[in-house]
Write a structure and sequence with these properties.
With 203 residues, this protein is α+β, with helices and mostly antiparallel strands. Helix content is 45%, strand content 14%. The protein has a domain at 88-203. The longest helix has 20 residues, at 122-141.
């Protein structure tokens, strides 16, 4: 069996895979189309109203990467993680000012209620999202493939149906009431592929 591996893409997943493979005796080559590596884990700067804001240049950052990966790959000794200090700003067409996406769920709840008329439960959404992420991360560390039986045992029937076997539209309708909140939150739960949010594979 060949010990030579080619990885297409030097995003965070490709780099982590290359690290583990190389440390286990494989000869690894990575092919990357962009001028810099890191994929979604790199950042850029934009200036709005005279103030500079840093933002992740990818669709996702390190939220799902567990601490053990940083330690086992040696990244914890060589990499400084970036967490934006300023909240996200969202502009919809014809808005005179942005909507501020606060990290604190209570602040975000107030902002979306005042700006978008949102009457849903943002705190419950974030809490349930964290529970699902914890479930997936635990299985990832233990090298256990996620399955519905474990999901139902750990998360319960309701969360499993909403977050795993259901569709993005049902999930968004469960937590949010305003179209703007659903559109924004869809970016965090909807699958990026060409599927309808009503399809079961949409999140």
């Amino acid at each position: 069996m060949s010990r030579k591996i080619i990885i297409i893409g030097a995003g965070i997943n490709g780099l982590v895979a290359a690290n583990y493979l190389q440390r286990n005796g494989y000869e690894v080559s990575i092919i990357e189309a962009k001028a810099k590596v890191g994929g979604a884990c790199t950042s850029e700067t934009v200036t709005l109203a005279g103030k500079d804001y840093r933002y992740a240049s990818g669709a996702s950052v390190l939220g799902l990467m567990q601490r053990f990966i940083f330690e086992e790959t040696g990244l914890s000794k060589k990499l400084k993680t970036f967490v934006p200090e300023s909240p996200k700003l969202v502009f919809f067409p014809n808005d005179s000012e942005p909507t501020v996406i606060y990290r604190n769920p209570k602040d975000l709840d107030r902002e979306l209620r005042d700006k978008w008329g949102e009457q849903g439960n943002i705190e419950a959404f974030r809490e349930d999202e964290s529970r699902v992420i914890d479930f997936l991360q635990t299985g990832y560390r233990d090298a256990v493939t996620p399955n519905l039986e474990d999901a139902r045992s750990n998360l319960g029937e309701t969360l499993t149906n909403l977050w795993i076997t259901g569709d993005a539209k049902t999930l968004l309708d469960h937590y949010f009431t305003s179209d703007r909140a659903k559109i924004y939150m869809a970016m965090t739960v909807a699958e990026s592929g060409p599927v309808s949010i009503r399809e079961k594979s949409s999140h």
